[in-house]
Design a protein that fits this description.
single chain, Alpha-Beta Plaits, 2 domains, 12 helices, 40% helix, 22% strand, elongated
């Protein structure tokens, strides 16, 4: 096993204390600017876990077999995972209804509302919005989360195929796919007639079940084994996708998601995913 600790707040004093808690004989190895790992035989590291949470350090206990070279597919959520915003909330802001829409988004991400139904409700509120508003969101507000480019570069360097699967919209998903050079992208399509949103979605909704199905379908098409897959997300609608992957990474996620994920990253960027599997 590898005990991996990561965070901009890490100091030598932190590493020394963690080393003492584990009673390890070997020293920490640095695998990134803010990332370190320690070989360990023990799975009893509750004291380390508690200390890291208190010090705002990301912690993970990673099996030795989990290396970047072993994986073949990474499937990722878009909103609040690859990018820093929830696109539908920013679209709603153009109509001065962001608080109402954001409240529904938050409830859905916490798992308190059915995602598909909540999406229909939110999109209906956007009826009449000019299509040009979508481009404004891209130009003015859409930003990649820290480390996104580095993580995708690590995937490419290790022949890991990448797919964005989003309950968001193709207008933004296609842009992010091109921006990062992702291999695949699946998302919802907003109906637009005469240059305005109708308040409807075209085709089947990409919900939690669909996300999981897309991962399994691509995994099988690529001829990969079940243990060669990674899924990264932040909301309740990512849980099924994360469950069918061997590794589920909760990125700055809701508590419900962190509790069910293989690993949780709360204080570092997406580039720290690579450090989990580097030794």
């Amino acid at each position: 096993m590898r005990l991996v600790v990561q965070g901009r707040a890490i100091t030598v004093a932190h590493l020394t204390h963690i080393h003492r808690l584990t009673g390890g004989n070997t020293q920490f190895m640095q695998v990134g600017e803010f990332s370190y790992y320690l070989p360990t035989q023990s799975s009893d590291v509750e004291a380390v876990k508690a200390f890291c949470a208190e010090q705002q350090i990301d912690y993970a206990l990673v099996p030795d077999a989990q290396r970047l070279s072993h994986f073949g597919l990474c499937v990722m959520d878009m909103d609040s995972t690859l990018i820093s915003i929830e696109c539908i909330d920013e679209i709603a802001d153009m109509m001065q209804i962001k608080p109402q829409v954001s409240a529904v988004t938050e409830a859905a991400m916490r798992g308190e509302l059915d995602f598909a139904e909540s999406l229909k409700q939110r999109v209906a509120l956007l009826k009449g919005l000019p299509e040009a508003a979508l481009q404004r969101v891209v130009d003015e507000r859409l930003k990649l989360n820290p480390g996104a480019k580095q993580w995708i570069a690590a995937c490419k360097a290790n022949n890991i195929k990448t797919m964005l699967v989003s309950g968001g919209f193709t207008f933004f998903a296609d842009h992010v796919q091109q921006l990062l050079g992702l291999d695949y992208a699946v998302s919802n399509t907003l109906e637009i007639i005469d240059g305005k949103l109708t308040g409807n979605i075209v085709g089947d909704i990409v919900d939690a079940e669909r996300k999981a199905q897309e991962l399994l379908k691509l995994r099988d098409n690529l001829g990969l084994k079940a243990d060669q897959t990674i899924a990264i997300g932040d909301g309740a609608n990512d849980l099924k996708m994360m469950a069918v992957a061997t590794v589920g990474v909760a990125y700055h996620a809701k508590p419900l998601v962190q509790a069910q994920a293989t690993y949780a990253l709360n204080f570092t960027g997406l580039d720290s995913v690579a450090a989990l599997f580097t030794a």
